[in-house]
Known about the structure:
The protein is mainly alpha-helical and 212 residues long. Helices cover 51% and strands 6% of the residues. The protein has helices at 23-34, 39-51, 55-59, 93-100, 115-128, 139-152, 157-164, 169-172, 181-197, 199-211; strands at residues 66-67, 72-76, 86-90. A hairpin with a 4-residue loop joins strand 1 and strand 2.
Amino acid sequence: MTQRFHPQISLRCADGRRKYLTPDERERFIAAALDWRERSVGLLCLMLAYSGCRISEALAMTALSIDAGEGCVAIRSLKKRGHVVIRTVPLPRKLIEELLALNRQPEASLWPISRSTAWMRVKTVMASVGVVGGPHATPKGLRHGFGIHATRCGIPLNLVQRWLGHARISTTAIYADAVGAEERELAERMWEAEASSGCIDKGDQHSSSEQT
């Protein structure tokens, strides 16, 4: 039987630019969405940030997708071919209340706008807090940011996989490779140890002597 080839997925572009929001960028984005002047746009941004769903999946949601009793949203995985796959993702209670307060008809879209319009409105919220100029400053960057945030908070990879609707755990595993605060702290300890032993200074002096 012929095996299907799955290309390697990375959180970096070929030129090295990251594809995800940092914790600080994600926090600033959520703060802006909470106070956004057009409430439905703010809620769309919060849905993307708190569920990790694709923008097309958010636009397919209706009031029937919200399960207030269980405190979650049912997301239809649009990328699954041949059959419908529904995954449930927990949401903050306050967000669920506000989504229901939109007072849409049960089977009507929570956000009756086109994908391109939704994309631009999310980008506008990002730009308002300085998240611009790269592949990270997109709705897909929010999805990646959600995966990294969940992984760093100790959520098991198999649960993150289910929340994001990944077919393979190897896809979800990329979020464990992002440099986090703990990894940065360990690296800084290494640099401090090198600095205290004079290794860094000696290296700088050696480089300077080679240039002269």
